[in-house]
Amino acid sequence: MKIQEADAKSLLLAQGLPVPAWEVARTPAQAREAAEKLFAAGEAGVVIKAQVLVGGRGKAGGVKLAGSADEAQEVATRILGMDIKGIRVRKVLVAGAIDIEKEFYLGAIVDRATRRIVLMASAEGGVEIEEVARQNPGAIHRVAADPHLGLLPFQARGLGLAIGLKDPLLSPFVTIALGLYATMKANDADLVEINPLAVVAAVAPDGSATKTLVCLDAKITLDDSGLARHRQLESLRDLDEEDPSDAEARKLGINFIRLDGSIGCMVNGAGLAMTTMDLVKHFGGEPANFLDIGGGARHETVSGAMRLILSDQNVKAILVNIFGGITRGDEVARGLIEARAQQSRDVPMVVRIVGTNAAEAAQLLAEAKFETAISLDEAAEKAVTLAKAAAR
Ligand code: GDP
Ligand code: MN
């Protein structure tokens, strides 16, 4: 689950990372109010940033500075009316504008290859890290945290040195890197990115001028499977930006991933779903989705899943492949019959149900005049033929 910059900043702040204060505004008037407060507190300028779950907002014109409350309102009006990479901007973050001396990149990911949390840093900050990886991979430095010991201060220090940091920036960098690691662990995050990690002027305790680092942008992806351990994070889900079919699948408790083929697949079990997709391809078709309705699915789940499949206008045929273990074949058959009675458009369907209560299922399906198949090969081949005939 991706969360908005403002929420990501809250999670960073909770681990003690330096993040300039911000407010979120949904209207130009609210943005103006937030800016007025910042100017009254002595800020010379404010930054207005589109809150959308995509990167590259700056390049797209979604990050702008303003020097007065009037200008803040005007900029917010413009950004709140924008589309960024197809997503409508519904809210903006308002914060004091920072004078940036230099931009660094600092991120953490769960690296599947090493099975560790890996921190990545680069002196080429501000630009998208994918771009740096393509153009100049040597500019990205990495260090893996030990799963038992965690990220150790000397490792964070080594990473800071690798990107060219020296006193007085090294010590804040170590604190931030350790805080970033703590943010990953505390929230079961898959990814935490600070880009830019900005060098800014600061005042040392003795009153002299110095420099420090602040987190100006934050991007966090939470591990969906970890959310059960962090109920409070569920409230950070941005329903404004969630694809309706993803929301529906979540409510139904099924795994649904839309693809671009023409054959809708309904299967129980992830491995079986992949096998089914392979066979669809083998017979010359293209699956329209991956769908695992899970074990023990009830008829409401089946009919809900069918609605999801049919909401994709590219679907020309449907292949149902159920291997009944805990899932009862007759329950699935009832769901299919219920779904067909309600469905908005008529799409040819092939059903294969084996295992628990397969005989009862076969009887129900025969009475309702469904097209059925015994083997998976036969079912997949039929579905491909039906899709091709429907596309003609
Ligand atoms: P992104 O483009 O979606 O990654 O959004 P960012 O928050 O990273 O903003 C893009 C760029 O805008 C940054 O790399 C900075 O150069 C600039 N920026 C963001 N916040 C500030 C700020 O407070 N002051 C200044 N001067 N520039 C900022
Ligand atoms: Mn950024």
Helix/strand-derived category reads alpha+beta
> Which shape, going by the Cα principal axes?
elongated
How many beta-strand elements? 19
Radius of gyration: 26 Å
Ligands in the model, by name, code or SMILES, are: guanosine-5'-diphosphate, manganese (II) ion
User: CATH H level of the largest domain: which superfamily?
Assistant: Succinyl-CoA synthetase domains
How much strand? 25-35%
Mean pLDDT: 95
Number of helices: 12
The profile of the biggest β sheet is: 7 strands, antiparallel
Report low-confidence residues grouped into runs of 5 or more. none
Report the helical percentage.
25-40%
What is the CATH C level class of the largest domain, in words? Alpha Beta
Number of domains: 3
Describe the protein.
With 392 residues, the chain is α+β, with helices and mostly antiparallel strands. The chain has three domains: 21-96, 2-Layer Sandwich (Dna Ligase, domain 1); 102-236, 2-Layer Sandwich (D-amino Acid Aminotransferase, Chain A, domain 1), CATH 3.30.470; 244-391, Succinyl-CoA synthetase domains (Rossmann fold), CATH 3.40.50. It has twelve helices and 19 strands. Strands 1, 8, 9, 10, 11, 12 and 13 form a seven-stranded antiparallel sheet that branches. Helix 5 (153-162) crosses helix 6 (170-187), helix 9 crosses helix 10 and helix 10 packs parallel to helix 11 (358-367). The radius of gyration is 26 Å and the shape is elongated. Guanosine-5'-diphosphate is lined by residues 47, 49, 55-58, 63, 97-98, 100, 103, 126, 195-196, 216-217.
